[in-house]
Design a protein that fits this description.
Chain lengths: ~300, ~270
């Protein structure tokens, strides 16, 4: 059984203009050890797919018209809010684009990490290196220790001291590392990362990608990496799904799809990326292609 | 030379006690007429500060900036206004840089009104000029009386370019003009910039953090790191034979869409 199996996911969203179908039957299967890239232009439905897996789309405005999302023997679309709370942060880790909106500026980094570690520890004390029935104070102490270890692991220098800093004392790249630490602290089986490096400089991006890559190698987790950057996909993903207007146009192993795209849209996207080798006049956009050509 | 920047240093906050922050440190570069000069560097390296110094929105701590031989920071207000008509800027964010409450017609004619002494026109002539500009940037007459929110990001950036071109400048500063756009849309805007340069003989000072974009657009490039230029020269030289460690690091960090070039992928 696959780690995550999304079948025929159809989602509609309601706005003041009425209800519109956004996802038109997404099929995606992720195994352990795989990093799936989901690429596509703004508005193609990437984030809503990721948020569906975490069940973070409130209803209304969201409404699922069909499909299921199988994870750990359960259909997440049918899971109770309580089950989902237990899964999030424990079995499903999440990282979003903008670290400033996901760290609370008034709490120390440590307080926020220890909270997540305690939450995971209640569910499974072994995450904190404890056995069942450990005392509250032992849990607290172990949670802090785990938080420091995790910060150290994501490359925060001098983690034991910096854990007591506030978010604004960290650079953008460091804040994104904290979010990765937070997502990984519960030892999730699946990591959903929505544009985790989009707000970062390329040098920091390269470090974060290496971090995600190494975590997958070490813990054998599965990753859904949402990005609009084909370069990022080519770097660390084992597989890729190309999204266009709420549909996956093609998907498969990354070399197959990017080296020999079967869809004109994928080829057109590739032809629009300026690389350090692209010469004047070689770039093409999508305007020559009619939307019907992609259907 | 069109633009000559010589030994420019900009220190913020020197008036208070303490050291001050050196945003630009002895920067020198020259932009040839009709060419595209790229400035590449990561966030906070001082790129936007340099454009503000060129437009005289910031004073210099030391150094000179000459536009067609004239020392920009020594000009009178009236002389500066005439220079500004020939030296225009396109901003990064096509969402924030267009006034949402006025029509495309009014947005694009704004500089024609600001510079009415340099380029006198009747209101009829202004409307004709706006129509001409819309066609030039790949939009049409139908768009004249619409509002910014009715346009996509790429179209808004075309509107920003049309506005910058309204008074027929020779020189465009483009500060990350495509950073907020999807790559497919970016490709079209970059191709538009190529075409406009060929048609109008424009000179570009093009700022970006994306090395691929710089190579595509520019003839020459300078690499900026923490307010200092670490390396500059023809793009092919810098990209194919970088001498500076920082430039090399940037080039290596740039993710290429060819999976075989990934540092993580073992060769099977
Ligand atoms: N809360 C919402 N209400 C209504 N429509 C939404 C909402 N969130 C997103 N959408 C629409 O759903 C589509 C897909 O959005 P999203 O998944 O965020 O795209 P992506 O992440 O690929 O840029 C877009 O057209 C967007 O306008
Ligand atoms: N008015 C100002 N006062 C103090 N520091 C400033 C001011 N404007 C910019 N800076 C600082 O100068 C540095 C360079 O900023 P900027 O030129 O905007 O960088 P870039 O455009 O390359 O991202 C940054 O560290 C920024 O915080
Ligand atoms: Mg998104
Ligand atoms: Mg800037």
């Amino acid at each position: 059984m696959a780690l995550l199996d999304i079948q025929n996911l159809q989602l509609a969203m309601r706005s003041y203009e009425g209800e519109t179908q956004i996802l038109h039957g997404i099929d995606l299967k992720i195994e352990r050890g795989e990093i799936w890239g989901m690429v596509g232009e703004t508005g193609s439905g990437k984030s809503l797919t990721g948020l569906s897996v975490s069940r973070l789309i409130p209803s209304p405005p969201g409404r699922y018209l069909a499909g299921n999302i199988d994870f750990g023997g359960k259909d997440l679309l049918k899971a109770s809010d309580r089950d989902m709370r237990a899964l999030r942060g424990r079995h499903i880790g999440m990282i979003f684009q903008d670290p400033t909106t996901n760290l609370n500026p008034v709490f120390r980094i440590g307080t926020q990490l220890v909270d997540v570690a305690l939450h995971a520890g209640h569910d499974d004390p072994s995450i904190l290196g404890l056995s069942k029935g450990a005392s509250r104070s032992a849990m607290k102490k172990a949670a802090r220790k785990t938080a420091i270890e995790m910060l150290d692991k994501v490359g925060i220098p001098d983690a034991a001291t910096r854990i007591d800093d506030y978010p604004h004392q960290f650079s953008g790249g460091m804040r994104q590392r904290v979010l990765i630490a937070m997502a990984m602290i519960g030892k999730p089986d699946l990591l959903i990362a929505d544009e985790p490096t989009t707000a970062l400089d390329v040098s920091v991006q390269a470090q974060i990608l290496r971090l995600i890559h190494d975590l997958v190698a070490e813990r054998n987790i599965g990753v859904l990496l949402i990005t609009h950057n084909l370069g990022v996909v080519a770097q660390i993903c084992s597989h890729v799904a190309v999204m266009y207007r709420g549909r996956i146009l093609e998907s498969g192993p990354v070399r197959e799809v990017l080296k020999h795209p079967s869809h004109v849209y994928t080829q057109a996207l590739l032809d629009s990326v300026p690389t350090v080798h692209t010469k004047r006049g070689e770039l093409r956009g999508l305007s020559g292609l009619s939307p019907e050509a992609f259907a | 030379m069109s633009l000559e920047i010589k030994n420019v240093t900009k220190i913020f906050g020197t008036s208070r006690k303490g050291e001050g922050f050196t945003a630009l440190d002895d920067v020198s570069l020259s932009v040839k007429k009709g060419s595209s000069f790229g400035l590449v560097g990561e966030s906070g390296s001082g790129k936007t500060t340099l454009t503000k110094c060129i437009l005289r929105l910031e004073s210099l701590t030391s150094g000179t900036i000459r536009f067609e031989g004239k020392d920009i920071h020594a000009l009178s207000k009236a002389e500066m206004r005439r220079v500004r008509a020939r030296l225009q800027i396109v901003f990064q964010d096509p969402y924030a840089s267009l006034n949402p409450r006025i029509t495309i017609h009014d947005i694009i004619s704004e500089p024609l009104i600001i510079h009415r002494e340099t380029v006198p026109m009747s209101s009829r002539q202004r409307t004709e000029r706006v129509e001409e500009l819309l066609l030039q940037v790949g939009l049409s007459r139908e768009h004249l009386f619409r509002y910014p929110h009715e346009f996509s990001g790429g179209q808004r950036q075309r509107i920003g370019i049309a506005r910058a071109l309204a008074v027929k400048p020779e020189f465009l500063i483009l500060d990350e003009p495509t950073s907020a756009l999807d790559v497919s849309v970016q490709a079209e805007v970059l191709n538009l910039l190529h075409r406009l340069q060929d048609e109008l003989g424009l000179t570009y000072f093009f700022i970006s953090h994306d090395l691929g974009v710089i190579r595509y657009v520019c003839d020459e490039v300078a690499v900026i790191y923490r307010g200092k230029l670490v390396e500059q020269g023809p793009v092919d030289d810098i990209f194919d034979h970088p001498k500076d460690d920082y430039t090399r690091m940037l080039l290596n960090a740039m993710p290429d869409p060819d999976p075989d070039l990934s540092p993580f992928r073992r060769v099977e």
